[in-house]
Amino acid sequence: MKGLSLLSTPSMWLDGGLPKKISRMKIGQRVLELSIDNNPERIKELVAQPMEGIAVPGEKALRILVADRITENALQQLKSSDYDYEFQPEITAKELISSIGGFDALIVRGRTKVTKEVISAGGRLKVIGRAGVGVDNIDMEAAKARNIPVLNTPNALTNAVAEFTLGLMIDIARKIPGADASMKGQKWEKEKFSGSELKGKTYGTIGIGKIGQRVAELSRAFGMRIVANDVIPIPEELIKKLEIRVSTQEEVFSLSDFVDIHVPLTPETANLANYSKFKLMKKTAYLINTSRGKVVNEKELIRALDEQVIAGAALDVFEMEPPISFDLARYDNVVATPHIAGQTTEAQNAAGMEVVQLVMKALGSP
Q1: Dihedral (CA of 194, 197, 202, 206) sign
Q2: 63-154+344-366 CATH fold
Q3: Active-site positions?
Q4: Alpha carbon distance 292, 317 (integer Å)
Q5: What spatial distance separates the first Cα and last Cα of the chain, rounded to whole Å?
Q6: In this structure, which CATH number among 3.40.50.880, 3.40.50.2300, 1.20.1270.10, 3.40.50.720 belongs to the domain 158-336?
Q7: Which of 107, 166, 294, 341 has its CA 20 to 30 A from that of 135?
Q8: Interval 154-190: pLDDT, tens
Q9: What secondary structure, in 3-state letters, does 80-93 show?
């Protein structure tokens, strides 16, 4: 028995109110899953049973808070472990700050912001797990100051994001979203939707890590040329395999028919794609972004589109999510999606299971 996993004090839920979450508590060798639908009378019965040998949260129990939605397979790993956990996928920022002090580990995706205030309030916090690639929703400096490791799952989403990126390239080049909308409007506008092929075009990537490499591989399969820039030296073996032309950032923008961005959000990459870079692009070229919204200056992208500096853009990420303004999505030559590049069953399952394993390994034996 490692502790009560429901709330900090039994009195909070003996009054008839039940939490909108799932928690696990152990009584002897039995494990009880509690949710909003459980019978309060039955819970009172169970609580009334002798609590001998049951630790109070905050003493010996190793407790994990899952603050965003992860797959059932990932949750099952926690259910079958000896760790106590709480699953609160709709927890607010205020609630997180008030409750994080009772947990040793925090698991999030992109929704939850792990701020300096959250980390400061997590007096017993030992590890933070991020199911996904980017960690810009986590205050890394605050975590570093507390010596709290931040563990993410960069490999889990690689193929999903790469396939989606190629899909965006095809969509924007062949005007598929517009043609689909036209048909739904009961119109037959065949001549309006003449597009262009990928074969023989140049795919350019700023950043050629795991996702950039995978997109480059898929692009080569379509008969495209590859140009790339990265702050980290590109391995010679990869250059030969994909026949990559290693270039400056400016060359990637000027040479490519599709300029794709695969970089983390840092002070150096914020506003990387701006009006001066758009001016370098071919008038027939497209901008693709599935990395982080703030690496593209949206105001300057709108200017470039208005002035017909570039042919269009395909965007899965935005400066603000959800956007305050949907101005970019209104352009006919922009394909806009709500940050879903990694949203496949396979990728989310892999990310959830991997982050749970990483967090449990970091915590050690409960």
Answers
A1: positive
A2: Rossmann fold (3.40.50)
A3: 292, 321, 339
A4: 6
A5: 10
A6: 3.40.50.720
A7: 166
A8: 899 999 999 999 999 999 999 999 999 999 999 999 9
A9: CCCCEEEECCCCCH
